[in-house]
Amino acid sequence: QSDPADTMVVQAPTKKRTTYRFSPNKNWMAWADEGHIMIKAMDDTTVINLTEGKNILVEKDSAELKFSPEVWNELGTQLIARTKYGLYRIDRETKEVERFMEFDPDEENAPRYGIADWHPNGRYLYLSYNATDRWERGLVRYNFQNEQLEDLVKSENLFRSWRFSEDGSRIVYE
After folding, report:
1. Which of 71, 65, 1, 76 is nearest to 34 (CA)?
2. Which of 67, 122, 128, 147 is the right S-S partner for 81, CB 3.0 to 4.6 Å?
């Protein structure tokens, strides 16, 4: 049994409901606050706003982005975040925010994507896929090198419980 004196409080309790995303190496944590992505190192009290000044869509002047963190890369150097307008890759050190997948929030028949996993080498982001205009489900991956969305499996079957091997070489599912 662990000694309570060895317990470290990494974030003070609040009444606000907050979901934290921890980097795979457990050195960093991320959360959304007022639509911004906040991060902090586990061994530091300094909170960093990764999206400060980057939450306005240029092409839609008044549309304010509300980011939510999704998943860290293997090294904890990059983070995937979501808004209703798309998926973004955020660099922890440079604070560069890049939208790599665009969503149209007004398009009723647009497919829905959920984050399944980020390949350990950082090249692929695996996403569950759900069509909204027909019964079609599956797994796709976004290739950061060629900036393309690639179909891996799509059909009328129901897929769930995506599991990825530690090295990213195998995917199993039900």
Report:
1. 65
2. 67
